[in-house]
């Protein structure tokens, strides 16, 4: 993104920011993310929203899908790879509404979804965030 950019960042720009956020993670975490797929989509699909009990697609900016590391097995065969999904439109809305920098917002969502990959619940991560404040 540049200072003169007047259009909303596209999926490629969001992916670059997400890749940069992952690259800033400590190596010991990045090693466990090599096989995690990063997907940038406009919104979560209707099935995902229904499964999570979310009616407004703007309420979900990111999602981890897959088994956390501690639950993975060498016997897992035919299962889809672990994925971090970032939803561009909800991210852009949150960016505009909160005034938080887009890079900071994407980093926050990436760290949150990486936490799920390592087996942390939402409650665990909220407690960690509050302890750090």
Automatic annotation (TrEMBL):
CDD domains: MMP_ACEL2062 (cd12952). Coiled coil: none annotated. SUPFAM superfamilies: Metalloproteases ('zincins'), catalytic domain. Pfam families: Zincin_1. This is Metallopeptidase family protein. It comes from Allosphingosinicella flava.
């Amino acid at each position: 993104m540049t200072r003169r950019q007047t259009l909303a960042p596209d999926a490629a720009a969001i992916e670059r920011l997400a890749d940069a956020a992952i690259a800033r993670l400590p190596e010991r975490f990045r090693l466990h993310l090599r096989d995690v797929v990063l997907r940038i989509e406009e919104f979560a699909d209707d099935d995902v929203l229904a499964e999570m009990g979310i009616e407004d697609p703007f309420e979900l900016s990111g999602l981890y899908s897959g088994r956390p590391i501690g639950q993975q097995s060498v016997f897992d065969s035919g299962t889809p790879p672990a994925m971090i999904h970032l939803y561009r439109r909800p991210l852009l809305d949150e960016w505009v509404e909160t005034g938080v920098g887009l890079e900071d917002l994407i980093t926050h969502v990436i760290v949150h979804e990486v936490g799920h990959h390592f087996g942390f619940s939402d409650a665990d991560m909220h407690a960690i965030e509050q302890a750090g404040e």
